[in-house]
Write a structure and sequence with these properties.
With 343 residues, the chain is an alpha/beta fold. Helix content is 29%, strand content 24%. It has two domains: 141 residues, Rossmann fold; 185 residues, Dihydrodipicolinate Reductase, domain 2. A six-stranded parallel beta sheet has the order 5-2-1-6-7-8, sandwiched between helices. A six-stranded mixed beta sheet has the order 10-9-11-14-13-12. It has a two-stranded antiparallel ribbon with strand order 3-4. Strand 12, helix 7 and strand 13 form a beta-alpha-beta unit.
């Protein structure tokens, strides 16, 4: 079977990565269209090495006859057009935050909770989790299966690509400007990001946490286990691509470092690179363009009875967004869940 696929938000960083990933993984397509706002109509976008797509207008596009819609246009736009696509018979995989906590819509990391995929049939929409949540849960799932997680304390170090192309441009401009004494132009972030760290991602909530920090806790409970307690501090750092996390986990039962390593080695999409020597760990720069989630710096946490600490890194545009969405699509194909309208 081959499928008709619409990529929504195709001109953005994640949209381009989705097109690249679909081509690289030879997803079975009979037709691919690139959709974006009216101002992007006519723009040329690559799909693989030999195909160039001409961007079409999302506002006027008819999804009838399309099997799959991969959405990353922003939450407000997905709120309008994802249900419209679903009503036309298209299965939507949405990268934005809009549908993630809807009880009727599954929130999926294919290596972690594929058993929830069938729930998409009610609304024909599947939500892609937050980038930081995805990589953390790929690392946590095999440990949870062994010793059951009680509590997670995580600090994230998130690249500017999480704020889109505009965030990357701002880091570049500020970095370049610092060498010629240009005053930093601050538009995408609340303070200068070049040579700085900003402990603020998304909006502040009444309890003092940011929405990004709330997402990590709420999404972990929805995807992995409603009883897990999570406290997060999310920080924007002057890195172009790649999110890193320092993760401290408390378990209900004893778990050794050896058990954790053995479980990680069996986990699809996870690689262990952990040598207790100079350079024996993965950094965000090492993970760019890589599909796997990487774990390093595993050690026992002596401050709790059953605790481990580790470092976790992934390319946020790939596993944190585009790749996870394409893997959801691949799972739907493998489990024969896409409509048989495909030809």
């Amino acid at each position: 079977m081959v499928y008709r696929v619409a990529v929504v938000g195709a001109t953005g960083a994640v949209g381009r990565e989705i097109l690249k990933t679909l081509a690289e993984r030879n997803f079975p397509v009979s037709k691919v269209v690139a959709l974006a706002s009216a101002r992007s109509v006519g723009q040329q976008i690559s799909f693989g090495e030999k195909t160039v797509l001409t961007c079409q207008n999302l506002e006027t596009f008819d999804f009838t006859g399309f099997d799959l819609g991969l959405f990353s246009p922003g939450a407000a736009i997905s709120a309008v057009h994802a249900p419209r696509a679903a009503a036309a018979g298209c299965v939507v995989i949405d990268n934005t935050s809009h549908f993630r906590m809807d009880p009727d819509i599954p929130l999926i990391v294919p290596e972690v909770n594929p058993q929830h995929l069938h729930l998409f049939k009610k609304r024909r929409i599947i939500a892609n989790p937050n980038c930081s949540t995805i990589q953390m849960l790929v690392a946590l799932k095999p440990l949870h299966d062994i010793a059951r997680i009680k509590r997670v304390v995580v600090a994230t170090y998130q690249s500017v690509s999480g704020a889109g192309k505009e965030g990357m441009d701002e880091l570049f401009a500020q970095s370049k400007g610092s060498f010629v004494n240009d005053p930093p132009l601050v538009e995408q972030f609340t303070k200068p990001i070049a040579f700085n760290c900003i402990p603020h991602i998304d909006k502040f909530m009444d309890d003092g946490f940011t929405k990004e920090e709330w997402k990590m806790a709420a999404e972990t409970r929805k995807i992995l286990d409603p009883d897990i307690k999570v406290v997060a501090t999310c920080v924007r750092v002057p890195v172009f691509i790649g999110h890193a996390e320092a993760v401290h986990v408390e378990f209900e039962r004893p778990i050794t470092e050896a058990q954790a390593r053995a479980a990680w080695k069996k986990m699809p999409g996870l690689s262990v690179f952990d040598k207790r020597e100079d350079g024996g760990y993965i950094t965000p720069l090492d993970a760019v363009h890589e599909d796997d989630v990487y774990v390093s710096r595993l050690r026992r946490d002596p401050t709790v009875e059953h605790g481990l600490a580790f470092w976790c890194v992934a390319d946020n545009l790939r596993k944190g967004a585009a790749l996870n969405a394409v893997q959801i699509a691949e799972a739907l194909v493998k489990m024969k869940m896409l409509d048989k309208q495909a030809a």
